[in-house]
Design goal:
Layout lengths: L1 H23 L3 H5 L4 E12 L3 E12 L2 H21 L7 E15 L3 E17 L5 H12 L3 E9 L4 H26 L3 E16 L4 E4 L6 E4 L3 E13 L1
Antiparallel strand pairs: 1-9, 2-4, 2-5, 3-4, 6-9, 7-8
Helix pairs in contact: 3-4
Length: about 240
């Protein structure tokens, strides 16, 4: 009885060893077929007309003392805020960027450095959500601030890029599929399932150069909004069949 049981165990062990040897001797093409893949990169973009404008402006005043120049700057800044309120710009869209007061000097070869006075400045970042009214608001702000006001920049932008980003992603995936299918055709293989997809770059808003000019007929400031590209870059990997 003991000999028979031993013989059965030995026969089973030999069978398992033979099966393992057969698995190890499978053709290399069969063992690696599941690991074949293709990876492509693509970028999708969509053009969108900006619906808002960001205005950067600074009130700057020079006077004989710190106290007086700061008071004059505050008066000019209040006039700017009043003009913005009249233009229906919400207070939440008006943000002070900086407030500074410092002595200002003049230098000449004859007298060297001499104190001119004290300069006070307050900078604002203003969001104009109605892009079409941006030119009129710029004119109103300049009129309110007078010679104390500097317009540092006017930049159009898109308030909510959600829809544009979705369109850019759709475009990126479409281009990736077309590129992968082209390579698969050239290699004589077929695309399988997607192994992974990675968004390489966050949605990017490319801001064009802005033109700001006066209308020849009315003398009013006109803001040319143009179009902006919202782009998304992706990397996609497919299994090959």
């Amino acid at each position: 009885m003991r000999i028979t049981r031993f013989q059965k165990i030995a026969a089973l062990s030999i069978a398992i060893a033979l099966m393992g040897g057969a698995a190890l001797s499978m053709p290399a093409s069969t063992a690696t077929a599941a690991t074949r893949y293709i990876t492509v990169n693509s970028e999708g973009s969509v053009k969108v007309a900006p619906d808002a404008v960001r205005l950067n402006a600074t009130v700057s005043v020079v006077s004989g003392s710190n106290k007086s120049t700061l008071a004059e700057a505050a008066t000019a800044a209040s006039a700017v805020r009043a003009a913005l309120k009249t233009a229906l710009v919400d207070s939440k869209d008006i943000a002070s960027q900086s407030v500074t007061v410092y002595p200002e000097y003049n230098y000449t070869q004859d007298k060297g450095q001499s104190l001119v006075g004290y300069r006070a400045a307050q900078s604002f970042v203003i969001t104009i959500r109605n892009a079409k009214s941006a030119g009129a608001i710029v004119d109103a702000v300049v009129a309110a601030g007078g010679d104390s006001l500097q317009v540092n920049g006017v930049t159009p932008f898109i308030v909510d890029t959600t829809k544009a980003t979705l369109s850019a992603r759709t475009d990126a995936v479409k281009k990736a599929k077309a590129k992968a299918a082209s390579y698969a055709s050239l290699l004589g293989v077929k695309l399988g399932k997607v192994i992974y997809l990675t968004e390489n770059s966050s949605p990017t808003n490319y801001v064009p150069m802005l033109a700001m000019a006066k209308s020849a007929d009315t003398g009013a400031t006109e803001i040319d909004l143009g179009q902006q590209d919202v782009s998304v870059g992706i990397s996609v990997q497919w299994a090959l069949l």
